[in-house]
């Protein structure tokens, strides 16, 4: 149970946790991390009246995931952040076991959030077909507070062949009609996206489903649907895909389909599923369109149920959000570019001589003149190597259980690396491939024998 009263009663504990968090030498410098405790999915991303709002799944009193609600930071410029009051407490009968993931929708400057209220029944249930409610809730908000939690749909409103796992709403508006995309697991253990329809953003009816005509996991979490450069894109996180040598190397996946979706006529054609990330720590991404018209993606720099660990738990916090990335289409692929605002964090450029070690942890590094195979150190025991068309990221002890990830890439034309004190985000071929990772080396060690590297030391976000 986590409500405002319990939160306030734990003021002393939260202060102590904060002090511990601040002591972590590997606390991230330019990422959104929880002030205390646990963080998972980004939620409700939006920009309203110029201010960016990032909410996220959070359990502030427990770094190992306790009762989940929504944490909140705001920012005027994506560099300076303000920690706002805890946003959604799981304090109603509709969400008492978790204010789960959801999204923002803004129209005529009016903001609403849609999210999943998780309820678990006590007793001996499987929690899949029985013993659970996934309620779709709506709140109207000014971004800082909200009115009543309105129940929009419950399990009885979802198709009868669904399990109780139907969650993570995202709204899309087309030709005056609102569509809600929800991730779902059917009783036949097939993952899919359900689409509901509404004329007033309150009364929703089942419209259609989007699924593959082949086996593709038992559950699809966190769907997102949007248009970009005349393409329609469906993002989702399938669970239950078998690992292949160069694909699906994590326990759960995050990726996208190009889709030709005719919502009016309920027809669609899905392209191939492409992974959004090939690193160890990426899940549940969400996108939003900012006031400048950019489509920005933020992911959870973590993943559920992984068998590797995060030593930050010793300092009473766990997980972070990725740096925001602007989405673009290049050469028929969705590419992710770190948002340009991050350039404001740059110090003076350094050209690193081959074989020389750069000892800082927080920097942006780029390789140029890439010709053929290479090997670089990102930490002393972390290497990124390209050989015979395979890019491999190998981590030693500082991976804290993370070992190796491989990507098959015919040619590498560009490489951009964002290193924070305990993370690495690697953008390959202008962001056509990305690897997002946590890493826990105490010392910086960036070195290349064969590539020319340019480095910008990076400063830190401010949090007030
Ligand atoms: C994805 C997810 C969502 C859910 C949330 C709960 O990581 O499992 O499907 O809404 O996390 O925290």
Describe the protein's architecture and organization.
4% of the residues lie in helices and 49% in strands. It has helices at 4-9, 11-23; strands at 37-48, 51-59, 69-75, 80-83, 99-107, 110-120, 132-141, 150-153, 162-174, 177-186, 191-198, 205-210, 219-228, 231-239, 255-262, 267-275, 283-289, 295-300, 317-318, 325-330, 333-338, 350-352, 363-368, 374-379, 382-387, 390-395, 404-408, 415-420, 423-428, 433-438, 447-448, 452-457, 462-463. The two termini are 28 Å apart. The structure holds beta-D-fructofuranose. Residues 40-41, 57, 68, 100-101, 116, 167-168, 221-222, 283-284, 304 line the site of beta-D-fructofuranose. Pathway: Glycan biosynthesis; sucrose metabolism. Its EC number is 3.2.1.26. Residues 31-338 form the Glycosyl hydrolase family 32 N-terminal domain. It catalyses: Hydrolysis of terminal non-reducing beta-D-fructofuranoside residues in beta-D-fructofuranosides.
């Amino acid at each position: 149970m986590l409500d405002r009263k319990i939160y306030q009663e734990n003021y002393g504990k939260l202060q102590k946790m904060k002090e511990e968090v601040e002591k972590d030498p590997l606390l991230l410098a330019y990422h959104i991390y929880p002030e205390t405790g646990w963080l998972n999915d980004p939620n409700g991303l939006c920009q309203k009246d110029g201010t960016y709002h990032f909410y996220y799944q959070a359990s502030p009193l427990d770094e190992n995931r306790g009762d989940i609600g929504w944490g909140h930071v705001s920012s005027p410029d994506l560099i300076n952040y303000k920690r706002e009051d805890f946003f959604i407490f799981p304090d109603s009968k509709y969400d008492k076991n978790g204010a789960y993931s959801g999204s923002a929708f803004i129209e005529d400057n009016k903001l609403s959030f849609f999210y999943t209220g998780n309820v678990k029944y006590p007793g001996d249930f499987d929690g899949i077909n029985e013993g659970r409610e996934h309620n779709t809730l709506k709140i109207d908000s000014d971004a800082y507070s909200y009115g009543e939690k309105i129940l929009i749909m419950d399990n009885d409103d979802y198709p009868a062949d669904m399990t109780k796992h139907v969650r993570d709403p995202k709204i899309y508006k087309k030709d005056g009609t609102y569509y809600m995309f929800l991730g779902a697991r059917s009783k036949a253990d097939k993952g899919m996206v359900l689409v509901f329809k509404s004329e007033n953003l309150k009364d929703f009816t089942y419209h259609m489903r989007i699924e593959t005509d082949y086996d593709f996991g038992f559950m699809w979490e966190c769907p997102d649907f949007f248009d970009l450069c005349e393409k329609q894109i469906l993002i989702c996180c399938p669970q239950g895909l078998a690992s292949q040598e160069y694909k699906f190397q994590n326990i759960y996946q995050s990726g996208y389909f190009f889709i030709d979706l005719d919502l009016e006529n309920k027809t669609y054609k899905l392209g191939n599923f492409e992974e959004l990330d090939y690193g160890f720590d990426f899940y549940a991404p969400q996108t939003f369109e900012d006031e400048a018209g950019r489509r920005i993606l933020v992911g959870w720099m973590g993943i559920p149920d992984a068998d590797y660990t995060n030593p930050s738990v010793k300092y009473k916090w766990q997980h972070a959000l990725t740096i925001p990335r602007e989405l673009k289409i290049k050469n028929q692929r969705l590419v992710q570019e770190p948002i340009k605002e991050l350039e404001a964090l740059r110090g003076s450029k350094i050209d690193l001589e081959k074989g020389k070690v750069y000892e800082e942890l927080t920097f942006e590094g780029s390789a140029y003149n890439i010709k053929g195979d290479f090997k670089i150190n990102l930490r002393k025991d972390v290497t990124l190597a390209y050989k015979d068309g395979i890019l491999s990221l190998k981590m030693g002890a500082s991976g804290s259980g993370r070992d190796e990830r491989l990507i098959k890439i015919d040619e590498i034309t560009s490489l951009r690396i964002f290193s924070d004190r305990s993370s690495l985000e690697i953008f390959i071929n202008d962001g056509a491939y990305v690897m997002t990772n946590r890493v826990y080396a105490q010392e910086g060690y960036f070195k290349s024998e064969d590539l020319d590297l340019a480095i910008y030391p990076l400063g830190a976000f401010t949090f007030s």
